[in-house]
Design a protein that fits this description.
Strand order of the largest sheet: 3-2-1-4-7
CATH superfamily of the largest domain: ATPase, nucleotide binding domain
Shape: globular
Number of helices: 6
CATH class of the largest domain: Alpha Beta
Helix content: 25-40%
CATH topology of the largest domain: Nucleotidyltransferase, domain 5
Number of domains: 3
Largest sheet: 5 strands, mixed
Structural class: alpha+beta
Number of strands: 10
């Protein structure tokens, strides 16, 4: 029984997953990145214990998928835009010490690509590109059945391709990257800054915008 941890810019989700890929229990909490790594680690540990108890199982291993630059070899965070101050901390070592099990860390898009290749639409396919859109945009690439890590084992940051040089500022320091134009926050920023028809500017989230669209607005 694997404890799965998904660390994003907005929320941390934790679940218990069996060998078939079925999620048996799940919890989530706001990431609260400014609150610091120690606070985030404490909530991960608490949610892992609670989901394990809810599923009635013992954790036999833990897999972590995290936004941004991470180092699977060492288990440490790199310079993650959405997690300021978390750089250099090592959730693999910390969770392994707490639960006495093997722990693995991958970039969240790479982890998702591996999951899709193992149990989802990419099962038995030799080549796969997985794109995830949320607070940021990520991509994982499977080539000949293997995860593609890029030059010098660097994760291929597909979201930081410049689409519109005159576009909005991006967290990476450039302007008009795909991530600055098409994430949930980017969608909300554009929508709230541009009144449509008789609609005045407002403070809508991406989820609320999607709800409006589903209602035919």
């Amino acid at each position: 029984m694997i404890g799965a941890v998904d660390i994003g810019g907005t929320k941390i989700a934790v679940g218990m997953v069996d060998d078939s890929g079925k999620v048996l229990s799940r919890l989530e909490s706001p990431t609260d990145a400014p609150g610091g790594y120690a606070n985030g680690l404490k909530r991960m540990i608490d949610m892992l214990r609670r989901t394990s108890r809810d599923a009635g199982v013992e954790i036999s291993g833990i897999g972590i998928g995290s936004t941004g630059v991470v180092y699977p070899g060492s288990g440490a965070f790199g310079d993650v835009d959405l997690l300021p101050g978390w750089r250099g901390n090592n959730p693999v070592q910390d969770l392994a010490r707490e639960f006495k099990v093997t722990v693995a860390l991958e970039n969240d898009a790479d982890a998702s690509a591996l999951g899709e290749a193992g149990w989802g639409a990419g099962k038995l396919k030799s080549r796969l590109i997985y794109v995830t859109v949320g607070t940021g945009i990520g991509g994982g690439i499977i080539l000949n059945g293997q995860l593609y890590r890029g030059v010098d084992m660097a994760h291929p940051e597909i979201s930081h391709h410049v689409i519109d040089p005159s576009g909005p500022d991006c967290s990476c320091g450039y302007r008009g990257c795909w991530e600055s134009l098409a994430t949930g926050p980017a969608m909300a920023a554009w929508f709230n800054a541009n009144a449509l028809g008789d609609r005045p500017p407002q403070n809508s989230s991406a989820a609320q915008i999607c709800q409006l669209a589903n209602r035919g607005d």
